[in-house]
UniProtKB/TrEMBL annotation:
<keyword id="KW-0968">Cytoplasmic vesicle</keyword>
<keyword id="KW-0597">Phosphoprotein</keyword>
<dbReference type="InterPro" id="IPR001464">
    <property type="entry name" value="Annexin"/>
</dbReference>
<keyword id="KW-0111">Calcium/phospholipid-binding</keyword>
<dbReference type="GO" id="GO:0051283">
    <property type="term" value="P:negative regulation of sequestering of calcium ion"/>
</dbReference>
<dbReference type="GO" id="GO:0005886">
    <property type="term" value="C:plasma membrane"/>
</dbReference>
<keyword id="KW-0106">Calcium</keyword>
<dbReference type="InterPro" id="IPR018252">
    <property type="entry name" value="Annexin_repeat_CS"/>
</dbReference>
<dbReference type="GO" id="GO:0005509">
    <property type="term" value="F:calcium ion binding"/>
</dbReference>
<keyword id="KW-0007">Acetylation</keyword>
<dbReference type="InterPro" id="IPR002391">
    <property type="entry name" value="ANX4"/>
</dbReference>
<dbReference type="InterPro" id="IPR037104">
    <property type="entry name" value="Annexin_sf"/>
</dbReference>
<dbReference type="GO" id="GO:0042589">
    <property type="term" value="C:zymogen granule membrane"/>
</dbReference>
<dbReference type="InterPro" id="IPR018502">
    <property type="entry name" value="Annexin_repeat"/>
</dbReference>
<comment type="similarity">
    <text>Belongs to the annexin family.</text>
</comment>
<dbReference type="Pfam" id="PF00191">
    <property type="entry name" value="Annexin"/>
</dbReference>
<keyword id="KW-0677">Repeat</keyword>
Length: 151
């Protein structure tokens, strides 16, 4: 069971306002961003993304990306993704460029159920406009390829 539980007094509009205030003007209140993002469940963070867009007409992910940098940016942006989007991103990184990070492929594909893998496939297609199966097939071979594709 995860350690991040849904916030009891959750208000997506209020959280969106806190995040906007933290990024508006000179400087960035990283503490406020950390406080909101780390104290909400993933489902609540997805609601905040929608509320931010509805309230400000802006993409929260793009604003966070422009305001944060380094390890903090990677962490916060990763937390703002759905689990399927995060897995799709990690799979893409594992097959991109020279060489394949087979340990990442194994860790993700062998530990997810069919429903989760279907969601990852959808997220991968939406993000990269390519089929996960095609990318896995072109980057692997032999029995390993057959196992990954069958998963």
């Amino acid at each position: 069971r995860g350690t991040v539980q849904p916030a009891a007094s959750f208000n997506d509009d209020g959280d969106a306002q806190v995040l906007r205030k933290a990024m508006k003007g000179l400087g960035t209140d990283e503490g406020a961003i950390i406080e909101v993002v780390t104290q909400r469940s993933n489902a609540q963070r997805q609601q905040i993304l929608k509320a931010y867009k509805a309230h400000y007409g802006r993409d929260l992910m793009a604003d966070l990306k422009s305001e944060l940098s380094g390890s903090l940016a990677k962490l916060i942006l990763g937390l703002m993704l759905t689990p399927a989007q995060y897995d799709a991103k990690q799979l893409r990184k594992a097959v991109e460029g020279a060489g394949t990070d087979e340990s990442v492929l194994i860790e993700i594909m062998a530990t997810r159920n069919n429903q989760e893998i279907a969601a990852i496939n959808t997220a991968y297609q939406e993000a990269y406009h390519k089929s996960l199966e095609d990318d896995l097939s072109s980057d692997t071979s032999g029995h390993f390829k057959r196992i990954l594709v069958s998963l």
